[in-house]
Amino acid sequence: MRIAHVLRCTALLSLAYVGLGGISLLIAVAPGYASPLFPAAGLALAGTLRLGRSALMAVWLGSALLNLINAWLSGKPDSLSLSIAALIGTGAAMQAGVGAWLISRVMGERWRELESERDVVRFLLLGGVISTLISSSLCVTGLYGLGVINHSDYLFAWWNWYVGDSVGVIVFAPLFMCFFNHQDGAWRDRRRRIVGPTLITGGLVALAFYGVAQWERQAQQNQLQADGQAIAKRIADRVVAHREVLASLRNFIEATPAFTFRQFEQFNRITLEGHQDIHALSFNDFVPQEHRVAYEKAVAAQSMNNAFQITERDETGNLRRAGDRPDYVAVRYIVPMATNRLALGFDIYSEPTRREAINRALAVGEMAVTKPIKLVQEQQKRTSVLELLPVRNAEGPLAIGGVVRPSGFAVAVIKVDEMVAIATRDHIPDGLALQLTDAGIPSGQGVLFQSEQLLAAKMVPERASAWSAILPVGDRQWLLSIYPGRGYFQHHRPLMVWAMGVVGLTFAFLMQVLMLGMTGRSSIIHRKSAALRASEDRYQRLFNDSPLPVWQVAAGSRRFLMVNDKAVEHYGWSRETFLSMTLDDILADGDGVSCRDPQIGHGAGADLPRCRHRRSDGSEIEVIVSASTVSLGDEDAHVQVIQDITQQIQLIAARETAEQSSMTKSRFLATVSHELRPR
């Protein structure tokens, strides 16, 4: 029977732990194991105090099951989840066991009542402040060792875990003790008094944490938006700078149509030194098919090796002489020459991505930007784009097929990674990762840039909190996405979050001390009142059952306050009449001060005052008064015990009369006998 009872209690406690823990984890913070309010910790402590060691297994099972369910709902049940569940279950059981041991060791059996503020403070300190260090320290350290949380999360996870367990114990352990001790009258009355305020306290703490969490989340989003906007502006500024470089190059070409390579190189040298993200600057002539041969000869004559031809890539990616087509856009000059020699003569119109950008530039007459491309002259794997700005024909626009053709294009080859690095150097907060994509290309195909953390999978971005913005680049749109990692929010966590933990813990502690202290004192008062009522009942019984008349009179007014049944019977006045009279009303005329002042004449035997009292029928009696003083609130009273000695006095008088008669008779007989004696 005992085993069945233990098993039933264990099962119920485990299920209750799972239910309370599941509700708490709804407001848990990343990585999802710590809640800022965890009532199950209070249930574990109260259950261990009530049931003993058998409750520890229930706590372990409940905690482990709770975390396994949490892992299953998160879609990642694996061996790591089993280890985490066992770890957290061990921490919860150790915390409850140590808390119960400390309370029993320090407080003895006083924890069962918690009637004084001192006992309440010790209970909450031992169970809700000290012992809760165990679970938070053990579990958070274990999660860090298992790789679930990183070093930047450690301190906040520990604090959040500790506050959640502490508030859970402080607020809810006394509440559960009310239900576990439902047969105890004091706790039954306490349950009626504190359940509502306790739930309100817990609700206020939870609401405060929720409000601060929302405020924190909004503050972090605002910070992320501010950082994202700053990064977007710096990248946009680089794009504007490139546009200005191309505009300057176009002006140079239009102002100096017969420029040489040396002039072209000299003009762009300073520009390239100041813009390291520009891989190359070139001028690409627009060459119709009928002008191709003459164009190649003219450019070859100006080159150092007297060789020049318009080229294109074959199917294997190697350069070859370009085939016949209506138009070419060939690279005439490009700087720096040392790293871009292979690009000389390359017909960018032969490649679809570049051709698409050229046609858009021709259509609008403004700068166009290509999709991500691989350069002819670039050997390493990196993403680049071409920015093309049409150059007007100084000798008159060339119209082919009804479309006005420019003399060529001023082209900037942009290394996107260098551009982002220059734009964001020393301006990316720790924990942020960037991704730059071409918004006009299907997802996954238009990636222009990714931070190293994303490429190496060294950072898990909080994609739910990502911030993005569209950057206009020429006639295209780039999507800038900012991904905050866990470390970012740790570096930008407002102090209010930490302060809220202190405030919530302090508020819950003080509220419980106040409520438990008040109800404890109320229990003491009720117990003392019950004892006083019992004492008064005993006194009343003794007062009424006395075989002698007894009454209480006020010390000052000598008004009757109480009279017993014997006094009513002996004196003949009703109780109501008695209580409307004073002591003076029953004293016979001529009685001295000793009878009027009951404080005089304390003692026994002959020291007790003898007085004459009147009864309701007018007769007078001789009494001996024994008086004592009692305190009734702010007023003193005297209790008088009356002993009627009227009969004794009468008997004494009769005896004295008889004795006197006998003595007289004896003297008479003696005299007669003397007279009659013979002489």
Overall pLDDT score: 81
Q: What ranges have pLDDT less than 50 throughout 5 or more consecutive residues?
A: 396-403, 600-606
Largest sheet: 5 strands, antiparallel
Question: What is the count of DSSP helices, taking H or I runs of 4+ residues?
Answer: 20
What is the assembly state of the chains in this entry? single chain
Structural class: alpha+beta
Order of adjacent strands in the largest pleated sheet: 4-1-9-6-5
Q: State the helicity in percent bands.
A: 40-55%
The overall strand count is 18
Strand content: 15-25%
Q: What does the overall shape look like?
A: rod-shaped
Distance between the termini: 115 Å
Rg over CA atoms = 53 Å
Report on this model:
It is a single chain. The protein has helices at 2-24, 39-51, 54-73, 79-107, 117-130, 132-145, 151-180, 185-255, 261-274, 292-302, 337-340, 352-364, 416-424, 452-455, 486-491, 495-545, 565-571, 575-579, 593-596, 646-676, and strands at 278-288, 311-313, 319-321, 327-335, 368-369, 384-391, 398-400, 403-405, 408-415, 432-438, 447-450, 467-473, 476-484, 550-554, 560-563, 610-614, 620-632, 635-644. The protein is α+β, with helices and mostly antiparallel strands. Mean pLDDT is 81; it is low at 396-403 and 600-606.
